[in-house]
Amino acid sequence: MILKVSTAAFRPALAIASLLTGSVTLQADERDEAIQALREQVRILDQKLRVLERKYETKEDSTAAARTAPKITINDKGLTLASGDDANSIKLRGLVQFDSRTFFGDNGITNNSFVLRRARISTEGTFAKNFAFQVVPEFGGGALSILDANISLTLRKAFTVKAGKFKVPVGHELLQSDSWTFFNERALPSNLVPSRDVGIQLGGDLFDGTVLYAAGVFGGVADGASSSNSDFDNEKSVAGRIFATPFKNSAGSPLQDLGLGVSGSLGRQKTATALTGGYRTPGQQTFFRYRTTAVNDGQIWRLSPHVDYRNGSLGVLGEFVVSVANARPTATGAKAALENKAWQVAAGYVLTGENSSYTGVVPKANFDPTAGTWGAFEVVARYENLRVDFGAFPLFADPAASADEASTAGIGLNWYLNKAVRATFDFYQTSFDNSSLVPTSLLLRQDEKALITRFQVAF
Amino acid sequence: MKTLRLTTLLFVGTLATAAFGKTIELLNVSYDPTRELYVDYNKAFAAHWNAKTGDTVSIKQSHGGSGKQARSVIDGLGADVVTLALAADVDALCGNAKLIPQDWQKRLPNNSAPYTSTIVFLVRKGNPRKIKDWDDLVRPGVSVITPNPKTSGGARWNYLGAWGYALKKFNGDEAQTRQFVGALFKNVAVLDSGARGSTTTFVQRGIGDVVISWENEAHLALREFGADKFEVVVPSLSILAEPTVTFVDKVAKKKGTTDAAKAYLEYLYSDEGQEIAGRNFYRPRNEAIAAKYSSTFPKLELITIDAVFGGWAKAQKTHFADGGVFDQIYVK
User: pTM of the predicted model, to two decimals?
Assistant: First the structure.
């Protein structure tokens, strides 16, 4: 009874307590659910993070593996075999130039021809990162010869030592690759600079690549000539070039690709043979040669200031060369200093909008008739002049057989089918000055009008 | 006197040859999870070969995704023997490289597969996602780990196991099977290049709810990382995986190691070789030895590559060649 009374008395209180407890339990359940949801969210995020970390980890592993795996690359620069760390590599490159030469109004000279102008398979490579080599045989023209064969050691960008046979650092157009000059034949000034010689050279980049320099000691060769791979006399030449592109790192500047250079050589030569094999027109016909009795005896020096400018599709090149040789008309004749000079101005404009470049135009779209793309087209023009020292006539050169001056105007069209293939169509008209009224050389009796077309593969 | 000298010299020479036997070096290019098996086996074979011939044999191992390993051998990795995850990868050595003859599988018993395995699931202790069979791997939210079938032999077995299960479930309906396998690969969080990488992802990096794994690899994970952390789940149906072995004729001949390379593989079929396989969680071919390990290897329905897929050549071309079914599924 007492219990009944007590229960009845507490019933409302119990009811309130029960409600309160229920409410607390409900709140606790909601809290637990929220915690569970948060835990799940954390778990999912944790998994996502772990997945990302693992993907990064495996990517690192595969990158490390790739670094050690040897690499084979075949592209428009040739075939390259390289070690995974790029410290060692061998490159196989090639150049084939097939020319058609047609001469107009040439007074019956038999000179229209097909010519395999250049045919080279060259090998270049790097060993232990710093050592490099280059071997370039020439199968084109009339005979097999070694054009370049050299070894170099690069300790830093500013310090590369090269030894062997390679281009002497004099001139500008001659130092450009045969494949990518504006015209299919170089201009007259290249007659006055040495081509390839045996020697040792120091070179490199300075000031963030804005200045290139090269200086070396060489055996010494005549104008336009190359070494026969050996030089047995005691006379040597020094040669050097400095080429500055002061605005190279000024992105957006119209002068960014302006380059100014000067090069020269100085040496002593005393040879029993002729001074030079002769100076040739762009049509590759000889318009000047010394008498065979003439010999070098004394100092030879050359100087060549030059400029190269590129701005978008436009490219301009200017070059001047003076070559002075002390020579005798015969071994016992009176010595004289002969000063020959040449210059050229050339320009190209890429009609299809690609950039003009010292290393070749890269078409935006390769030649592919099925896709309606035609590669890149560039028009080019050039004027050039070479003047032989008047003092060379008549003792050093025969005025009836050699011109004392040649001037050439050229126009052309270059068709870049892709990065490796180019067709060129160039017309050159060369006029000659000579003191003989009736030259014995048929070439000199009228202007040379030459159409030279070339189909070339260079990689 | 002369005869005596000659006899003495011959005797001494023979002794010297016996005492200073040749040293032979073999390279075994294998797939990902066989590291432990071959560490164990190489010791046994070296002792056996030395006792038999007096020669010292030193065996180097190379491991990675089976397909990748085959590619490396074709590219010039000088393997005396290959012990790969599946016959298709070994077959690749017959192609242009012509490193082995076409009939290489006939050179050793059981189609040159000295041990077998199958595909199981490894889950976290307590199986929190309640994964029991292949169906559970396609459930939304289940995170699956498996390697890439393009580079890993084990992954191709995994893929084909799933395909075989779905084909049976959907009574041979290929469209539904494709959808099933596609759904499974949508749940894959990380696609490692090899089976060992997948184990690492799941076990050591703590990613995923389940890793589809070689049976041997799953048991190895239990042994190495603790049965208190993981569980092996055996699905209702799986595939009979037959890793195959062969010596690489062209390489072994050039190195003068043909005899040792052949013997190395033949010894896998010996009692000792089979014991080592069982000990390392591979199913031995020798029935008596397999019986000793029956508790490790539960019985389950196993489909075969020949019966369901028409052999490796066909399966490879249909599913794993560039533009094959896997590419279509995984791109989607």
Answer: 0.56
